[in-house]
Amino acid sequence: MRLRSYNTDDPSNIMSTSTVLVIGATRKQGGATTNALLNCGFRVRALTRIVHSPAATRPSERGVEVVRGDVSDKSSLISALEGANAAYFTTDSSVGAEGEIGQGKDFIAAPREANAERVVYSSAHSADRTARVGGVPHLDSKLDIEKRLRHRACSGRSSAHSPSWRTCRLLESHAT
């Protein structure tokens, strides 16, 4: 992931005053996102189910605020988002397509309730094209969440406290 680097010594710099909640910071994709955000001077908050795990300790050693929560628990998402300017999230495909859609639904509602300004949802590469053919539940669920995000963003439910949404599709390479 490439993010432009900014001068973090400048107190007016938005990077040094913005907190980003990263869902999945203890895993591969969220960990890379966390590193990129830290390198650009953002403050990062990581949501994890087990705050004292070795995976959660590594980010905290780099200055990441690690908070307990679960992407399947809307109230813990809202608590984790309190005071955050932005959030980056991906869903956990190990819970199956319906579980992943449930996580997406909860996360779509949480940023608005916590007044977060921006949200980035990490979907899957070609989710839209693969879902047209069907038969890949993991990609079908990603597309379902994307559609819900678009509907939320375009439904007239916007207010001064509605976050700006972005969906990114990542092509992940698996080294064997």
Structure summary:
The chain has 176 residues and is α/β, with parallel strands linked by helices.
Explained architecture:
With 176 residues, the protein is an alpha/beta fold. The protein has helices spanning 14-17, 28-39, 54-61, 74-81, 96-114, 127-133, 137-154, and strands at 19-23, 43-48, 65-68, 86-89, 118-124, 164-170. It has a six-stranded parallel sheet with strand order 3-2-1-4-5-6, with helices on both faces. Helix 6 (127-133) packs across helix 7. The protein starts with 13 loop residues before the first helix and ends in a 6-residue tail after the last strand. The model is unreliable at 1-8, 156-161 and 171-176 (pLDDT under 50).
